[in-house]
Design goal:
4-stranded antiparallel sheet, 11 strands, elongated, 25% helix, single chain, alpha+beta
């Protein structure tokens, strides 16, 4: 499931596409073309040009185009990016194993014969021109304590739901949200605006630290809580049976003993 750690790995992979002249665009699936993008518009915007930078904000990958609009890629739950046939992430939780050209949804082909390709079995990702970055909150790897406090202040929304709101903080997903709140000792169901100043500071530090750790390990599925997010699972910190509920529309697991 691509969350911030996976998309950052895709960004690093996409750096290998920077500077390579684009010869053709392959957009066989109109379903994932959003924001007015269509094969003709993508061809006009990209062919004959090259990417100048690969950037990321939250779970949005942004490829800047020399002399043209930026290209935005989102990966949904099962989207995978490949450069010249090599995937940025080898293992995809909740997605099928392996790669299959039947899942190709979008590609740019370079003059040198290589390509940058998006595969997405469940078709929940998207491709667009001119992605509006201002709709997203500060990136979870760089959000400051003050920014996080402002995102939470005064909200009666459950804490996890607020963290999953990409307009508030960009990049937190379902697995990383559970992991970070578990490590910070904060209940996902308490009102976001109820955190004390000390708790906001603790969450801010754990958010950045936790995201860096998941990135180093290889993805959001590599958290310490992850193997225990199941019926009968117990908190790996104190052995308490984990609680399961739906928070912000997502299946959520937490420890009622130390997450308050």
């Amino acid at each position: 499931m691509p969350e911030l750690p996976e998309v950052e790995r895709y960004r690093r992979l996409a750096e290998g596409a920077v500077g390579r002249r684009i010869r053709a665009v392959d957009a066989p699936d109109a379903w994932i073309l959003k924001g007015g993008a269509d094969p003709a518009a993508l061809t006009d915007a990209l062919v004959g040009r090259h990417f100048t930078a690969a950037r990321r904000r939250g779970k949005l990958l942004i490829l800047d185009v020399g002399g043209g609009p930026s290209l935005g890629l989102r990966f949904g739950m099962t989207g995978r990016l490949l450069l010249d046939g090599s995937p940025g992430v080898e293992e995809m939780l909740y997605g099928p194993a392996g790669l299959d050209r039947r899942w190709d949804r979008f590609a740019v082909v370079f003059d040198d014969g290589g390509d940058l390709r998006l595969q997405d079995p469940r078709r929940l990702g998207s491709v667009e021109l001119h992605p509006v970055e201002a709709r997203l909150g500060p990136d979870a790897l760089a959000v400051t304590r003050a920014e996080l406090g402002a995102a939470l202040a005064g909200s009666e929304v459950p804490l996890k739901a607020r963290l999953l709101d990409q307009r508030r903080v960009a990049g937190v997903g379902n697995l990383s949200g559970d992991e970070i709140l578990w490590k910070a000792g904060l209940s996902p169901v308490r009102p976001a605006g109820s955190l004390s100043s000390e708790e906001v500071g603790r969450l801010s530090a754990e958010l950045r630290r936790g995201m860096r750790l998941l990135l180093r390990r290889g993805g959001a599925h590599t958290g310490d809580l992850g193997p225990h997010r199941r019926p009968g699972g117990r908190c790996p910190q104190d052995g308490t049976p984990l609680v399961r509920a739906t928070v912000g529309g997502r299946t959520t697991w937490w420890c009622p003993a130390h997450q308050r």
